[in-house]
């Protein structure tokens, strides 16, 4: 197997964007439990996100959600972020929390509401111009709950038209990534339910339109690493939303439900050229810490991605190819499993220390007193986002 | 096939309880859309529920949810209901919207919180004593999101203990029904995830403890009519929560997603002795009308159940048995399908008119002006329940 | 709602191809149960298929499977078919029953085996030239059972290369349809697991390469009518393999498991321009009659498709569009359901009689004595296919 | 975390029964690929199974399948096994490969066929008396493919009656374990589809009737370790059939698809008292090595179970309980994951060597030349079982 020292340099390339909204309270339709210290402003979210990067050096950017993270002065927000050691990243649009969007946004049958949704994306592009963000991420809640409720073909055509208008407005260095989701919040049909639909839509737009793969947005049993491979092969994998799930879009900590699946996904990322700064593939988390603390929840997540990336890098590709070519089923599987079963934690701790980071970021954060501090200081105010 | 006239009398026996909370706004974790005319008090919910019964004569009772439907004087509430032509039915407890229950209620590791949850059920039994309700329905959100988070065995033992304490407090004419759910709001384990667990728990309590089957609370592909058959066979089917789903616990209108499945379920209910006043099986709806109007949504639902019940009653049992015994696969299937494919709507319309009901309840309600009236009158106030 | 008389003419356009192999014995890995009268030759299969068409006028063509239906003289076979009132249709290749294909066929790492599989398709095209068939259908069992066993990216590239070679060999009036399948016989990855992959592969080939949609080849919960809509929109829906399932690729009689789903699929076919001789969409059955008789099993299937097509044609499109545009969720759903709940069986029986067909094809076939005749005559010999 | 040395002694207790049929060829309904060296007799299967035990000391017994392993002299067979260092174990009945069982065996509507199936179990008990086996394992293929085909309630009652007759025939030291399966080979309903049904049936029989849990026989997303916990709690977990799956009953090598799930299952086994000779829980494999070599496939499997058992034993239970009681979600999860992520392979290799076993059993077997030897010697003959 490949040695840890030989992959150490490649680990330097890893960057996992954090979503600002992960630091706010989230929950289910049944209940959102509150947590002391929840951020009340975009700045407080960025400050929390910066903590994750401070102890791990894995998350140099923070994604924004508009309008949850709307501010008067984005230049100031960016300066604030930079002062905390991070930068602003992907801008996420939101067309699912306005009453007008009850029956759709970019796909709505009413041109007025469609235009409102398109205009919102123009606003997001304005924000991107100010924040220096590269990616505009679009996730649509659009869909229907009952057969017959909607003309699913008409909606697809209107979606193409709306996306074209937004795409045409992007700057030359800007990209659009279109996320797909199997179901929820719509329960009969989603307008972008699968990678095939997202791919067909972005392929019609141009080379700066790409697919966003959220690891929790598939039907039960779906082989996600196959989709990763296929999108990389087609040159259309734009970004990841990482999380994990046992059932539906559970939005658990990435790697928590099925660490082996995360390993397989990262293995396909690495060998398909999707890893590293030049790859054009953005790594991001998108999780809901319903019952666990937010900052350590995010920290655990980036560490999980790092640990599995290290294992994926450890795979002895030459030996694997030889076994595959020889039809040695057990041998080839064994070579892959060797890397997965290797405990990289001690090596990673040493690697962290060599870079001036704490060996155990979770412990270091816990010892820092930050959690207690925000719990005391952040009293009053209302969370921005997730129902705000 | 059996003739409609021969089953008309049996249709008189049908009664489908409506949940008070179906008339309030519901939604997903992403957004709850508001509707003009949403009830602000238990009385307004009961008034809305009474509309469904007025036009269909199918829903003589309304289930309460405590504390959503908490009032000072339950006798007065019952009188109010009776004045509107309905009665109060099942009392549903709620242990999922209090911060104390973040890590469980009847299964919580902390005896203080367990006792609080048990006391809440004692309070529900007090309400039942005043409303004359027979059934206490328990649905638990208890579970965990991450492997290791909870001692799943300890929780099961504590559940047994808590249920025993509640069961012991029931009056001689009162029953407990324990609902199970595959997942949500917990995403790793639910303390009562399947019928087997609910059955094992209630079997340990005694004969007045029964299982509640919610049609949306199963794993993908589960044969629900088999469970209906089995629970009737074991004498443990206490009640139904009807709804439908394409994906998870979508809580759509019953029969909307898979009318044939509803037919098969009702067929097993009928032939297993679960139909009619003497059966001891309570029929109830439990749906979320996220995008459709509430009163007509409930009306559509009880009519769907009635239409499929009529079809189920139409099955020619003798011919079916003969074909089954002969190993005539296509013949037996054809006899069942004959009943399913029969369009009973005209016969049901005539049957309704013969009882002084409108032939088309949906149209009659729409023409009544009730919806406009409540939209105008019910301004201000806050919905009780679902996040209240 | 639209009247039956107004759709009667459109029903004339319906043609559903039968697979020759449906008349042979099939089963599961556990057991294949034998049936008296099972065909021993391609001619006997065609004779059986012709029975279905004789009583229903719905199945004018029979699909062949090579090598299961290999004969010395395809012109003679076609004449035989014509003499029985049917024609030969789609040619299906088979690269899953030869020991060489244990680790793949068109995707195999060994160029010799890949070429063998490509050559087999050339042979199929030769057969098509003789039978006058339009479509070459490719379903690949290629995949792997264990992570690491195969280079899934390399296989995708080799697949593209192999398909190109086959496509280049097609005549100007011939088409290729590429089927996808979620899983089985491979249990970790399939090389063509979803519509997105099939679409991406055929889009790279040219306009006479299209997708084949088998209704049983999806993940649990997949909205199949959405895929139908999308492929029609993209101009890439080539053909259907109809069957039904409760769990996996159960290959039950089409419409048996979820008739409402079949209705929804056919509704999207009709309104997306996929219905009728000019549509370019081929309808075919692909089922396994493991426990029921084969000829009546196929007959039941084409009748199910016809009944649901009639219902789909009955949908009042104008009213539906109006309700959809008005955001009338219950109204729009109700308009669709009106058509689904309409019992078209008596109208179809009358329509059949008006065309000189038996009102009840199943009964007419049963009374014909054909089944008894073949059971007596066809003694000895070995079934060709499914293990042959 | 617990140290390896402190758990070494407990690893001695591990015993995983091998199924004789795992050494024969298996496949899918599409194709069974042959392998050189496939056993032609029960003795050859036992000899192969003994190889697994020789290199791992993990599999001291071999399960038989009647009639696949029918011999004239079971005492001689047992002696043969003993001479090869193993003993005979569980006897598995087979009521799915006889034409009479097309529509059921123990549940069949025809009393003659039911009695034939019951008699077959009496024969199995006779075999057990001769082999000294403790457990009679019953897996039923009984079910139906189409709604209406069968009276699912009548079948359940007949099942109870048939099982009672078999149970009554067991010796005082003998047990019955009843396996359940979600679907396949029946595609509408299975007579024993879930743990609840198996539990209800065996609970009615007596204390020596128990449930067999096959890890591949559940609906998608089912939390299997919960069922393990529940059955142990109810005193009804009799045995395991280990394998793994990505989709359905794929019967892959245990631990191959989701090693973390295997770890969680074994953790619940250990802490629920299901581990070790005195537990009364039998561990067995039940897999199909469709594309990989059989002997190393079984060896890989028992090693996977051992590795995950070691990890499960390593969990620091005290620390875990403390974190759980404190509501420390991330802490508790982290303690569990610590054990899972620990690479026990070097410790296990050393432990093996200390017992006179090869450090790397897979390599030792490969070097032994056994595979080549059987490939050369075993020419001709027909495999017994899986279609024989």
Automatic annotation (TrEMBL), chains A, B, C, D:
Entry-linked Gene3D superfamilies: Divalent-metal-dependent TIM barrel enzymes (3.20.20.150)
Coiled coil: none
InterPro entries associated with the record: L-rhamnose_isomerase, Rhamnose_iso-rel, Xyl_isomerase-like_sf
GO BP of this protein: L-lyxose metabolic process; rhamnose catabolic process
SUPFAM superfamilies recorded: Xylose isomerase-like
Record keywords: Isomerase, Manganese, Metal-binding
GO molecular function: L-rhamnose isomerase activity; metal ion binding
Keyword Metal-binding: yes
Top-level lineage group: Bacteria
Record NCBIfam families: RhaI_grampos (TIGR02635)
Full protein name: L-rhamnose isomerase/sugar isomerase
Origin species: Salinibacterium amurskyense
